[in-house]
Design a protein that fits this description.
- The protein is built from one helix and ten strands.
- The protein has one helix at residues 132-140; strands at residues 13-16, 42-46, 55-60, 65-71, 74-79, 84-89, 94-98, 103-107, 114-119, 128-129.
- It has a five-stranded antiparallel beta sheet, with no helix packed on it.
- A hairpin with a 4-residue loop joins strand 5 and strand 6 (84-89).
- Bound molecules: dTDP-4-keto-6-deoxyglucose.
- DTDP-4-keto-6-deoxyglucose is lined by residues 42, 44, 46, 55-56, 65, 104, 106, 117, 123.
């Protein structure tokens, strides 16, 4: 398995999830191994985010995540210490797979938006790097 310190923003991907369309409305099912490349050990969602507020602002050492705009839209800034990119999520059947070892910030939440997160691990504060300088040192220590 790749050293998670070496992951870059180019290892993240947009994943099109199944979308079953019905006249009464649509449904998107997500199954371990079939629709997502890791076992889901935790689900959480961000909601009631006040206008102008940012979330994230940290990196994870081991955690894989799928981020989905279950409602509304928001931007995800990805940063591997060298490269940055912004991904806009605005469809409930599109996921952003964020690999470990990347700094992320969530910005520009639309009113009433919901960020659904499917995560590969249970909550562990030791998996977080919440200081940007520590993150840069962490990335540098893989060379
Ligand atoms: C991420 C972005 C997208 C828990 O107790 N359990 C949990 O599973 C989570 C996710 C958080 N918490 C506690 C820890 C903090 O006291 O909830 C509080 C807020 O967490 P945090 O400041 O990390 O929230 P965000 O929105 O900045 O980040 C969260 C996730 O933590 C993170 O993995 O990538 O959403």
């Amino acid at each position: 398995m790749m050293d998670f310190k070496k992951y870059t923003i180019y290892d993240c991907s947009i994943v099109h999830l199944p979308k079953i369309e019905k006249r009464e409305g649509n449904i998107t099912p997500i199954e371990n191994k079939k629709d997502i490349p890791f076992d889901i050990r935790r689900i959480y969602y961000l909601y009631d985010v006040p206008g102008g507020e940012a979330r994230g602002g940290h990196a994870h050492k081991k955690l894989h995540q799928f981020l989905i705009a279950a409602s509304g839209s928001f931007d995800v800034l990805l940063d591997d210490g060298k490269n940055k990119k912004v991904v806009n999520l605005n469809r409930p059947y599109i996921a952003l797979h964020i690999v470990p070892g990347l700094w992320r910030e969530l910005l520009n939440f639309s009113s009433g938006s919901i960020c659904l997160v499917l995560a590969s691990e249970i909550y562990d504060e030791d998996d977080y790097i919440r200081n940007y300088k520590d993150f840069i040192n962490f990335k540098g220590s893989s060379k």
